[in-house]
Amino acid sequence: MLATSIVFAVSISAFASEGWLVDFEKAKAEATAQKKAILMDFTGSDWCTWCIRLRKEVFDTQNFKKAAPKDFVLLELDYPQDQAKVPEAIREQNEKLQQIYAITGYPTILLADAAGRPFARTGYEKGGPEEYLKHLDELKKNLEKRDAAFTKAAAVAGIEKAKALKEGLDVVPEEMVAAHYKSTLDEIKALDTTDSLGFEAKFGFVQAMRDHRANLKSKLEQGGEAVRAEADKFVSEHPKLSAKQKQQALLDVLNFLMPPKDNATALKLAEDVKALDPESEEGKMAEKIRAQVEKMSGK
Fold first, then answer.
1. Cα(23)–Cα(15) distance, rounded to whole angstroms?
2. pLDDT tens figures, 44-82
3. What is the pTM of this model?
4. How many domains does the chain have?
5. If DSSP codes are grouped into helix, strand and coil, which group holds residue 41?
6. Which of 29, 78, 171, 262 could bridge 142 with an S-S bond, Cβ 3.0-4.6 Å?
7. Within a domain: residue 155?
8. How far apart are CA 133 and CA 127, in angstroms?
């Protein structure tokens, strides 16, 4: 059994770039023991041009190899075309992490605490290792500010605690807060029952939108009209949505429409979004979409 474990560990390490881990749980354990953050590189090592450039221009340089491990445990999460490059167990892990962290493009670089809670997102940046390291230093300040606010929250109670927790979450991107800080959001909600800080109004919608997107996806096989009907249902079930929030909920439908068969649905959707507020960013986007769909349809 021990021999099998050793062989497995060696086989895993053979797929990792020098200085990088590929096992998420091991990365969290090392980050905890060494009191470091985790740098996650979601990459396509054999097909993604910008991923390859980022590794060559930054990650494989001696400056980065020397400096980055002082602050970060490095975790490589690879999605290659040649799947033989990654052991099956790591492929399954990476697929799960892709869903958990909502990764839609490559390279995506996430910075997370030792528990895996992200606090910053970035990608390719030009300028070589020195500029990239400076960029990471700036992003890492989010964690320092977050933790300082959380420490302050631990020393107070009631609404003051809620304010300190909010201060900590304010430095974290909103989509990360909604997905990865639910317990903190719930604590703020319990402490601030009248929502005087506006967090329930703000993140209640963000969390609802995550469920909304999953529901839209579930209707995909039924066609564009079913997806649109699901969006209308969401809007009707949330009567307190602002015009902008309604526009955002409806525009999400576009991610699930298939031209040309869904062109009529897309046109009606764009008109309805624009009608809610023609001057908003979403309203202007809807007008551009309408024009593009009409052009595609030959109108």
1. 11
2. 999 999 999 999 999 999 999 999 999 999 999 999 999
3. 0.73
4. 2
5. strand
6. 171
7. no
8. 10
